[in-house]
Amino acid sequence: MSGIGSTGQRACLAVPGADERKLAKAAALDADEIVIDLEDAVAPAGKRAARAAVASWLSSGVRLRGRVAVRVNTPGTSWCHRDIEACVRLETVHSIVVPKVESAADLAFVGRLLDGLELEVGRERPVRVQALIETAAGLAGIAGIVAATPRLDSLVLGYADLAASIGRSVAAGPGAWVAIQDTVLVAGRRAGLAVVDGPHLGVAVDDTFLAGVRHAADAGFDGKWVIHPGQIDAVTAAFTPAPDRIEWAERVVTALSEGHGSGVGAIDVDGQMVDEAVAAVARRVLARADGGLR
Ligand code: COA
Ligand code: MG
């Protein structure tokens, strides 16, 4: 099973829920997903007002280009359950992002709360769930977390909180995160989930940013969070297969199918060996090229 390409989350733009100007701007941007934040980008004193403002904005008939996710506050805080309740009442909210998920129990709580609220309000489409893995406990509990609720679509890495949780510098280079990225990628893929890379904290589209984007795309992530509108296009492009790659994938799939037709399992395409394993890579490229939000 694999989630590659299935959720279509290439560029996911985080927008502070308390900032009406940025919300209005985000509506017209070309991100696959906008993640309206009620958590860390909202000051504690402004949590309730931000929740109310987001609810009123989303129910005002605003047209959004990207799919809508809302990052609620962490389970166990005084805001989480009311954030989730507000999201259930908003049909435009496709998913909630649960921060600092530490165990399967955190997601089981969210899943049961959603069950009851959806019954109460008669919601048409179930709210999907994305889990932010951004603590040492979340990493240690990953095997249980990925199986905690059938609502779960995606895992997302959060570097700033991870840095705080494990005592790593936020300035540590990309190489410092490889083991953690692979832990989350492998666990997510094993469970058929999409896996999305966390945001770079700089707002510029500079060499450091672009190297991180390239690294995430090559490593196998489905997409990446961004914090600034100027970063959307580079991320969308990096997570979209280039035309020559799609053409290669089509040739591989066709050539191997012809090979199988004549009883041959390994063939030569452009001087490279192609067998079923390479064809599986090619099919993933084609699935990702199809995009397709679910
Ligand atoms: N979503 C929508 N619009 C945004 C945006 C975002 N994430 N970030 C910036 N913009 C808008 C600004 O409002 C501004 O538009 P305007 O000129 O019409 O007012 C324009 O893009 C240029 O912004 P800029 O001046 O370069 O940045 P800023 O100083 O306004 O904001 C940040 C910088 C980092 C505060 C801002 O990008 C931000 O809030 N990012 C998201 C933070 C977040 O959600 N964090 C939590 C999850 S990681
Ligand atoms: Mg955080």
From TrEMBL:
Source species, domain of life: Bacteria
Protein name listed in UniProt: Citrate lyase beta chain
Limits of the HpcH/HpaI aldolase/citrate lyase domain: 11-229
Residue numbers binding Mg(2+): E134, D161
GO biological process per UniProt: oxaloacetate metabolic process
Keywords, sorted A to Z: Lyase, Magnesium, Metal-binding
Record-linked Gene3D superfamilies: Phosphoenolpyruvate-binding domains
Entry's Gene Ontology molecular function annotations: lyase activity; magnesium ion binding
Residues holding substrate: R71, E134
Pfam families hit by this protein: HpcH_HpaI
Cleaved signal peptide residues: none
Cofactor: Mg(2+)
InterPro entries attached to this UniProt entry: Aldolase/citrate-lyase_domain, Citrate_lyase_beta/mcl1/mcl2, Pyrv/PenolPyrv_kinase-like_dom, Pyrv_kinase-like_dom_sf
Organism expressing this protein natively: Nocardia jinanensis
